[in-house]
Amino acid sequence: MKKKLIITAALCGAGTTKAQSPHVPITPDEIVADAVACAKAGAAVVHLHVRDENGKNTMATEKFVEVVGKVRKAIADEGLDIILNLTTSGSAFSEELRMAHLEALQPEMCSYDPGTMNWANSYVFLNTPAFLEKLGTKCQELQIKPEIEIFDAGMIGNIEHYIKKGFLKTPLHCQFVLDVPGGMPGNLESLSYLLPKLPQGSTWSITGIGKSHVSMMLAGLAAGCNGLRVGLEDNIFMEKGVYATNVQLVARAVEFGKMAGREIATAAEARQILGLKERQ
After folding, report:
1. pLDDT digits 0-9 by tens, 7-24
2. Which domains occur in the chain, in start order?
3. Rounded distance between C-alpha atoms, residue 246 and residue 87, angstroms
4. How wide is the angle at C-alpha 127 spanned by C-alphas 124 and 133, nearest 5°?
5. pTM of the model as a whole
6. How far is CA 9 from the centre of its chain?
7. I need a surface site. Which of 2, 24, 95, 203 has the fewest CB within 10 A?
8. Which InterPro entries match (predicted)?
9. Phi, psi of 106, deg, nearest 5
């Protein structure tokens, strides 16, 4: 199969607010509407965080159940297909709560942040060794593909450790998230350093935060990435001063992929590339 390009839409993240962008989806219905629109625009994967009634980040299992249930129904009603990738990030919450929705919903993918860092020099993005061992074990038990989110170089060494100890199973899928203050910058030097260190057989995707969003997409395409991640979790502008929507960001990624000679993967094709267990 010709190397297809997987587009992931990261819809809202944990922290993007309506004050920052009027287009960020906060409510369940807004998240559902954007998931459907992004699937129609070419996204094969939707990466989901959820918010509480006040628009703040939450890991409450019942909120995930509500939102994911509505997304699944809306996607099915539209005759669409998409892979759901649920977050497990959430330093403010217990390790048990960060995993509870995986058992309840059994998504095809979830995020796996293989290390701790000082996020934006403002708080500790905490991922303890004990949590990473438990999460890796849980993913294998439930046959969920972990998306290994790489923010910094030391995380490569960490994933090698968890592979060796059996908590991660190869082949991996790695998501470079570059230009978070406290992590590696979003530039060619970072990418050229990280890529040769990926475990053999890994697939990989890339996103740049904020101003590096477009340049990291282009760098990833030049380097032969398997996927691009876009969305208001990572970047709120189409260009300086012009607010983006999630659908616009997906459409631009699709266009960049086609310009680079890449066909855009459907959800079914993405499952084949990533080796996912499809849920009925």
Report:
1. 999 999 999 999 999 999
2. 6-274 (3.20.20.70)
3. 18
4. 170
5. 0.97
6. 7
7. 2
8. Aldolase_TIM (IPR013785), BKACE (IPR008567)
9. 45, 60
